[in-house]
């Protein structure tokens, strides 16, 4: 009997989780904050931040919300919050930032209400490589051209552009930011770059874009008190059934 009661409570909990979906992702916005280091930094508090020289092109980051909103979320599968872009240009030495945060805000709704949530924070570390650095080249010289089996040799030059590196980090405190919608408690997990990547590389005088992903999980349903009362009710029914059987 006890197994049946426990199974009943578990079944109701699972069905409650299923009832927590679908949820609509109605809107997303993002702004860059708390930049560390850098010169001529502009755009803090907006969706695009730049740094570098006082004139000409600047390196920077951008964020654009998912253009396909509103979007229906049916389960805990990953979904797209928006697109991150890294702009990499030649800038003066020591003028790049070391890190910056992207605060993301999102609005969710279902048939029972709507809620605005955030900020959910992505932390980016930046490695601005030299505009000119040592680069290895494979060269097929005179002997290689006459005797192909000799093979090419390696030469090092000092005039090669080097890809800048962007790394995304997470603080455990922001991996499960919770909010309540229509009596259900959800947690939004920030997953990072699409493809499970934690870093990306951008060529000099180029840009790289990648999607930022998240997932929505149900962390509490129904409320603990409700489950407890439900369990007591089932237990009472079990006792009555046993008395009747006796």
TrEMBL record:
InterPro entries, per database record: Choice_anch_K, Ice-binding_C
Stretches assigned to coiled coil: none
Signal peptide (residue range): 1-20
Keyword Signal: yes
Keywords linked to the UniProt accession: Signal
Residue ranges annotated for the Ice-binding protein C-terminal domain, each copy included: 220-243
Keyword field contains Signal: yes
The protein, known as: PEP-CTERM sorting domain-containing protein
Organism: Marinobacter salinexigens
Lineage, broadest ranks: Bacteria, Pseudomonadati, Pseudomonadota, Gammaproteobacteria, Pseudomonadales
């Amino acid at each position: 009997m006890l197994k049946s009661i426990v199974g009943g409570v578990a079944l109701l909990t699972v069905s409650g989780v299923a009832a927590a979906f679908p949820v609509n992702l109605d809107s997303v916005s993002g702004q860059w904050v708390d930049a560390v280091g850098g010169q001529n930094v502009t755009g803090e508090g907006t969706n695009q931040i730049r740094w570098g020289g006082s004139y000409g092109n600047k390196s920077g980051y951008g964020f654009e919300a998912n253009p396909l909103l509103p979007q229906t979320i049916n389960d805990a599968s990953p979904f797209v919050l928006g697109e991150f872009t890294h702009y990499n240009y030649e800038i003066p030495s020591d003028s790049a930032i070391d890190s910056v945060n992207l605060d993301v805000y999102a609005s969710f709704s279902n048939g029972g209400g709507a809620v605005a949530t955030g900020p959910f924070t992505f932390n980016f570390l930046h490695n601005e490589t030299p505009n000119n650095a040592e680069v290895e080249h494979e060269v097929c010289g005179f002997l290689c051209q006459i005797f192909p089996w000799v093979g090419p040799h390696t030469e090092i030059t000092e005039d090669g552009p080097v890809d800048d590196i962007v790394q995304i980090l997470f603080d455990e405190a922001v991996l499960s930011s919770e909010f309540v919608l229509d009596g259900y408690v959800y947690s939004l997990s920030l997953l990072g770059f699409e493809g499970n990547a934690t870093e990306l590389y951008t060529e000099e005088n180029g840009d790289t874009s990648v999607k930022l992903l998240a997932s929505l999980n149900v962390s509490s349903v129904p409320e603990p008190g409700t489950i407890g009362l439900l369990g007591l009710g089932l237990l009472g029914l079990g006792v009555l059934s046993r008395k009747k059987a006796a």
